[in-house]
## 1
Amino acid sequence: MTPLKFEALYQNEWQELEERLDVALKRKVADKTAQPLRGERIAALYRRACEHLALARARAYPAYLVDRLDRMTADAHQVIYQQRELGGAALRRLVARDFPRAVRASSGYVWLATALLAVPALVLGVLVYFRPGLILSVVDAAAAAQFEQMYSMSAESIGRTRDAGSDWTMFGFYIRNNVGIAFQCFASGLAAGLGSIFYLVYNGALFGAIAGYLTERGLGSTFYSFVVTHGAFELTAIALSGAAGLKLGHSLLAPGRRTRRQSLVHAARECVVIVYGVAAMLIVAAAVEAFWSSAAWVPSAVKFAVAGICWLVVFAYLALQGRHAG
Amino acid sequence: MARDVLDTVVAAETPEGILLELRPAGLSVRFCAFLLDWLIRLVIAYAAAIATVLTGAFGVGFWLVFYFLLEWFYPVAFELGRSGATPGKSIVGIKVVMDNGLPVTPAASFTRNLLRFADFLPFMFGAAIVSMLLRRDGKRLGDLAAATLVVHRPQRAPKVKLEGVAPVTPAVALAAEDQAAIVALAARAPTLTAERLNELAALASAVSGDAGKAGPNVTRRVLGVAQWAMGRRA
């Protein structure tokens, strides 16, 4: 069969498929007179077009013909096989099931990340508490003085320097800063986990040193009442992002029975679910930190009570949610 | 994959047994796209800063959130759009797809753009540059983990225009590939100068029985063979 005869014979089918694809891919606004989008018709025409493409290639038909069939089948392939993950249902599934399950599936990494965050914090905390001078080996003198001022009894808003902006400004700052750090903590795990280890240990050590220093200065009550509520979300989220990074790095170092690349792709698919959850938790943490933790008018007792509930809710959610859901 | 071939085309097979040809974009074109996106983001960030700082503390908070979104989610938002490309990529004619040729999924786009930070290490996108130069499919680390591919948008092949050319029966037996080569020359004819077309047609002059000759007449006869191969008969 000559190219021209081939084209003349199947022209109508191709044109119908192309028109239906244009509508399905929203390249063209469907006019009211057009036939409704019928999936089974597209699928049938697609299979025909696949046959025609195979024939056209085998018979070395001219490039424009092969090209047209190529584009047609590629478009149909997209319409038929594309995965839609966005939308309310996917979001609900993520919160109700996928995120806590992904965390539990990586529990080994979560415990390791928690240890990498908590052990340096405890060590530095105890060291600085007994030898306050050591704070200067972590931060400089000006920063140490600033921390003292931020958590002093007379501060209007706890946890801020006097010239810091309003609650809204701080909310923006916490989001940009904390979510950014969590993302970096996860991504740098690709370097054999080293980046995640660095971020976890560094942040843990910094937090521990400041806590030890302020406790020694007698500012413990304001400091702990400030950090304890949003810490439920923030510290957990940082540990989780580190855990995801460690998992990513481990998948490269020890791919098991997969190739390194397959192993990485597989791990990344599981880790990204954790990172979704981490981002959501940090947004909650930023809101709590900006509008609740800093409020000096709330008595410490109330803050500790609310914080207790928050920690309980976070742990219960991660440990129990979605165990039986279908 | 044969190591001695320069062509970097990646074939993705569909369940129907059709091979989709994907042409990975290389370092230079992706660098141009990156530069354009960087400039666009800079302009947006400045414009937003001027607009929001005027509105006081709430505006500053809003700007910080906006800047954070711009920093991490600018590529994600555009890659999930219909074109599958950020404005910079669109301009230079490349887009992001999955390894199997499908549109990039939200999870994959998020992954590859999060891991941009790992690609940045140790400095100035060192990891990304090394990875893209070493790999035939030009993937950076984020693409590897997300199973995505940055490809050139396919370009339409020119339609064969041979109106008014009289078909010529070939003087020798032509295999399918030979016919395809002659038709491909005919398709390119409108984009070539007359002299160059004559030169190329002279190389194929054996098909019309004019071996060793050249000139406009020979060219017309070679194009006539293309007309014949397309299926028109005298």
## 2
Amino acid sequence: MIKQTFRISGVLAALTLSFGAASAQDTIKIGVTEPLTGAVAASGNYVTQGAKIAADELNAGKGVLGKKVELIIEDNKSNPKEAVATAEKLIISDKVPVLMGAWSSTYTLAVMPKLMEYGVPMVVETSSSGKITTSGNPWIFRISPTSEMEAKAFGDKVAPFGIKKADFLAVNNDWGLGAAQEFSKMLKSKGIEVGVIETMDAKATDMSAQLAKIKASGGDTLFLTTGVEQITLVLKQAKEQQLPQKIITTGGSSSPDQLIKQAGDAANGSYHLLFFAPWFPETAPNPDIATKFVEEWKKRDYNFAGLTEGFRGYDGIMTIAAGIEGAGKADPKAIQQALWNVKVHGVNGDISFIKQGPKGKESGQNIPNVFVVTIKDGKVSKF
Amino acid sequence: MEQLAQHFVNALILGGTYALLGIGLTMIFGIMGVVNFTHGELYTFGAYMMFAFVMLLGLNFFASIAVAILLGVALGALIDFTLLRPLRGADIDTTMLVMIGAWIALQNAEQFVWSGIAKSVDTPFPSEPLVIGSVSVAWIRVFVFVAAIALIAATYLLINRTKLGKAMRATFQDPETAALMGIRVQRIYTTTFALGSGLAAAAGALLGPIFVVTPTMGDLAALKAFAIVILGGLGNIVGATIGGFVLAFIEELGAGYISSGYRDAMGFLVIIVILLLRPQGLFAQKERVG
């Protein structure tokens, strides 16, 4: 009986292997790990939708290396442990030569040792913690800005805000803490006083205690760093407590249209740092690409609010496709080498990588564009 | 001082909802000896029912709350009928495993039906808050607080002043003797589970519109509910009510004056300390081995 089971499993294994080999020849696989459920599900779903648009666009054209692109999308459940499990599954079982993910800095940082272990490159589409590109992981290529870049870009636009004293409310993880640190550094360098720096758990829903403390700080501006779900709650609760501060969100995950819909009045008067402004695609650095992307998004009846996240998935997959094309084969090592030379016209702008981190094991970092928008009377307008 | 007043009001309102979450759970544990892992899912269910009725069907907000609670009661009765009734007298571990399974199945079903993206529920209350001096609070929160206190009081009266409550208390003390006295113990169990579930659904229906509704919202709520029940003493309704307020005050003041990053940890830290000093919980008279 045992022998027989072994024999059957042997046959099954052979079958699986041959199927695997067959499909590997037909398509080029790209692994995607995003939070499709859990605390930051909205963003992960939007990024995935953008990725699908990119894959379909590639497949409608010449494909990559003459083959069709196949996205293998896994749900990391807004959880760093699951992010590691999905990356490992994609690498070992699906044998993808390259990954895109994992949205949150915390999930990305959790996945990074696995990239080293198996030698597979990953294009990071959203995460902004500085650590990701400075910790000496040569398999990382980030197209999103670091919190430092974002703070610096905002620094050039900060004067009209007339900020005298700023407070912070950040999600208690690598992303939020990093952003609070970089933005307060930038503000201090401009002679702006920094008041309280408060944090909240990524799953927390009631931020009234933090807001009561922030209200008492006497600041005029609150920098808020978290996902759209928590931004919604903070805006609503800030209005409930009549917070005097003007709210500016950082990190580009605020999906302003979703805020207008879900937070209503409470969203008015807030400012948002974004990496794509889909309301005015014609003003993007690559207006044709941006306009085409927005039109395709609308045609598919995807949620318009998701565009500010969705473009990340599109740019990420296009960058990967350029990497594979440059490598000439779907091999992890070759793709890693080729990514250093890509020049992609993306929705955010032109994508290419500079070296960051310790010498000899640098990570790739793109220098993206940053935009500021504001919500007035339930509408988004350019700042 | 102004900040303290605001914290105090915040904690009071939060405490009301925590207490509501706690009493349903403690009631089921006390009377049935069942560790109800589906409590958080009933909470989520209540919130989604609000979304369905208010946002999709356009029903009246207050009527929707009533319907959501009734459906929670019905779902609770169904769970008891299909899962718990066949397991009466079974080992507590067996029941616990079944309930964990039900929890996972319900959560995934919610994910499947509603997708992972958060939903929000509109309320009929003005968006301008109620302002008294330096303290400001949303009208919806005032309403939720009043409703929670009313539901807690109603539960308390039901258990202490009605014939059904008497039968429930008798079953709590000794199910066998209660059965000999002509109490239909099976029916009491089903009623208890349905009522406890209804209270969880009520909490979800009330809090869903304040926050956003997601399939995993029940996890944090259930965790808090367990903490409250342990704090108040297992099976003790008054204990759970006070436990809810204690936890809310610890969290609110801890976050306001010590560290907001450790807001949730602080509640649990206090629970560990209390359990070390008083393993039966703050208000339990005798230890009850489940």
